[in-house]
Structures are given as C-alpha cells and as structure tokens.
Amino acid sequence: MHPLRAYIHRFVALPDEAWRALEAELQPRQLKRHEYFVQPGDTRHEVALLLRGACRMFYPRADGEEVTTYFFFENHLLASYPACLRNAPSPLAIQALEPTELLVFPYAALTRLYDAWPVFERFGRLLAEYHLIGTEERLSEQLLYSPEARYRALLASSKTKIMARIPQRLVAAYLGVTPVSFSRIRARVARNPGPPAG
Amino acid sequence: MHPLRAYIHRFVALPDEAWRALEAELQPRQLKRHEYFVQPGDTRHEVALLLRGACRMFYPRADGEEVTTYFFFENHLLASYPACLRNAPSPLAIQALEPTELLVFPYAALTRLYDAWPVFERFGRLLAEYHLIGTEERLSEQLLYSPEARYRALLASSKTKIMARIPQRLVAAYLGVTPVSFSRIRARVARNPGPPAG
DNA sequence: CTAATTTCTTAGCGTTTGTTAACGAAAGCG
DNA sequence: CGCTTTCGTTAACAAACGCTAAGAAATTAG
C-alpha cells in the first residue's frame, strides 16, 4: 500500500476514490541537511509525510535560542499544526536533521477533503485526538516529574530510538533541560541505574 | 440558546434535529465541594458542560501527591479526555472546587452522534484541534520559559481569573512549581514588577 | 585523509528550587 | 460565632540547575 494511505489506514479505511483525491495533491520534495520545511512566519501551510530521514521542530526564543520540542522520523506526518489550524503565520520551524524525503500536500487540500468526504473528516478528528492525548501526556510528565525522572522514563520507553539518531543537546531541549544539565543527569543515572524514579 | 448548544455553536451550526438528539442524552448533576466527577480508574466515561462552579483536574503521583494540571469554569466542557479517547480507565481525577452544577452525557452518546451526523464529527474534529493547540502552547511554554517567566505570562494573560478563584497552591502546580517556590516567585515579582521576562 | 566545526563532558560559581518546619492568616464547618 | 482545618508566607539548608569556560571526543566538510 502507498505509505500515506497506510498511515491513514491506521485511523480509517479510505475508499479508492477518496484516496485518489488526496493522491492527486501529492508532491515529492527533498530536503538537504539543515534545510527547512517550515520557517517561523511562514504562511504557506503544508503537510508532509516523511518517507526517509529525520526532522526536528523548534520554537525560536526571544534571546535567539532555538528550543527543540519534537522529532519526526520515517512515516511521521509533519506540519506546523498551530499555523495550519489557526491559518496564521507559523510560530515554529521544522528543519531536516538529515537528508530527508517528503511527500507534501497543501493543508487547504486536506480541508477540502474534510468538506467532501466524511471519512476524511473522521480521519482528521482521530488524528487530532491522537496528537492531543500524546501532547497532554507529555505536558503532564513535565508538570509531575523531575528532569531526571523524565530521562529515566525516556530510557525505559520505546522512544529510545530518539536517543540513537539525535544529538544529545536536542534531546536535552526535548526533556526541558539545558545540554550541560542533561550531561550531568546522564552521568548521575549511569552511576546509579536503578532508582530514584520520582 | 441552550448553553451547550451555544458552546457547540462556537465550532459548528447544529441543525435542530441534531441538537435534539444530543439534548435527549443530557442529565443534570450537582457536585458538592470536593466531590468527584471522575476518579482515577473510572471506566464509565462521561462528558459534562459546567454550568456553575469550578473544578480542577489532577493526576495522582506515586508518592501520593495530587498534581493539579487544569481548571474548569462556567461553560467549559469537561471529561477525562485520555480515558474517553482510549476507552481505558481514567489516569486522572476531576474534582469540584466549589459547589458545581453539570450537564452530563455519556461519551458513547457522542461517538454515536459522530456516526450519525457529519456535523457532529466536524464538531469533534474542531474540538480536538482546539484543545490540541492549547495543550501544545502550554507544553512549549513549559519547555521554553522559566517558572518566573511563566508566572509573569500568566499575569499578563486573560487567564488572570484563574488566580482569583483558585487556591494558590493549585496555581503553583498548574505552573509546574511547588507552593513554597511559587510564593517566593510571587514576592520576587511583586518587588520587581517589570522584567525579566525570560 | 586531514582540517575545521560541532558536540559532549567536566568544573566552578551564583541562583533557584525543593524540602522541612514554624508561624500567622484565612476560610470552612458545626 | 467560635473552633478547627487549611492555606500562604518566611526561614534555613541541601540539592539541582543555569551559565560560562575549557578541553576532549566525535562528526562534518573539503
């Protein structure tokens, strides 16, 4: 099955005709290392399926720092969700960490499909709900647990692949600590692999 | 207009017949102070519109602490979103902070309406999207800014009403700090009302 | 393959936070 | 209305974090 159709199929079964309507919108795109899929301020809203490579999402802070908040790998859907949903300039950037291949389509095409096909509307609902519970889980982790506990939870999770492909300073930002502090936490955890989990 | 219909109307215009289908499911409920709408482990999934009063949402932590992560006031929709969407036991509790009046309906009734009425499915999508961008904004605030900066942002926001009706130790948890630390931050900010914002 | 750049670690220092505890104020309850 | 409980502030101490800087290690680019 087409990788995008397979992605959607995890949420809804798409009739052939509906799929073809989306397929007609797809455009391949290659990103070099460090090239952008979205830059802060962008108003041309696009969605993409990542076929090969890896990307990071980050927010620029007033002091010039770029705070990385998320990563995308193969068969992830990427977009500036806030920009698309509000139809506003993007507050964030999405940038390739490696040479990356994408399948891109305009967000406006998706909203047209929402109007035309109830099955797409359902997909849109399930997709938003899926991301919502993931984001809420991550927010509550930030509010409930210490940086060290969050790192231990990351180690114990299936997301360990994040660690493998991503520079550690970006993982640090993902966990909400500075690179220096993250290095100390790593040393601490390596010395004492078991508890504490709080 | 009925307050629930007015709430939904901010997202979609509901035909009379569709509205009546939902209206038939509504049940009023009163909560005393400290009474629960959802308790951790609950499997009977319900949604409610808050008509009068206030509630807090909190996660129980392994050490016994209850970490408050959200508040609900008049004309807010409340539910254990993770529990409803996953059809799993609730990981969190929702508890009345004041005597509270609710209009309750089963989450299963909503999913039936999703099946029966495309306009409800659209409402469900927009509702999830709306909550997603709110949650993502809050997560990125946690990752980007210091506790003091988050408190200053809260002061500058329209959410100042949170401060008024809610015990400060719960606001502290909402910001991701302990009550003692929050008290110090408040004193610091009161001494120096302007910067720093970082 | 080598040179340049970036990344990771470690250290020192000042600041902030968490914890515990005590006291006073405020609010709930009978 | 008075009693009890909860809540907010402050203090003291230990632990953790952010920042700066320097050296080592790894990666990238030519």
Major interchain interface with per-chain residue totals: A-B, 37 and 37 residues
Provide the structure class of chain A. Answer: alpha+beta
**Element-level helix/strand string of chain A:** HHEEEEEEHEEHHHHHH
- Number-wise, the strands of chain A total 8
Describe the structure in your own words.
Chains A, B: This is Crp/Fnr family transcriptional regulator. Chains A, B: Residues 29-115 form the Cyclic nucleotide-binding domain. The structure is a homodimer of 198-residue chains. The first copy, chain A, is 48% helix and 21% strand. The longest helix of chain A is centred in the middle third of the chain and has 27 residues, at 118-144. By secondary structure, chain A is of the alpha+beta class. The first copy, chain A, has 2 domains: 3-116, Jelly Rolls; 145-191. Chain A has helices at 3-9, 16-23, 81-86, 107-116, 118-144, 147-156, 160-165, 168-175, 179-191, and strands at 27-31, 36-38, 46-52, 55-60, 66-72, 77-78, 93-96, 100-106. Chain B binds a DNA duplex (30 and 30 nucleotides) through α9.
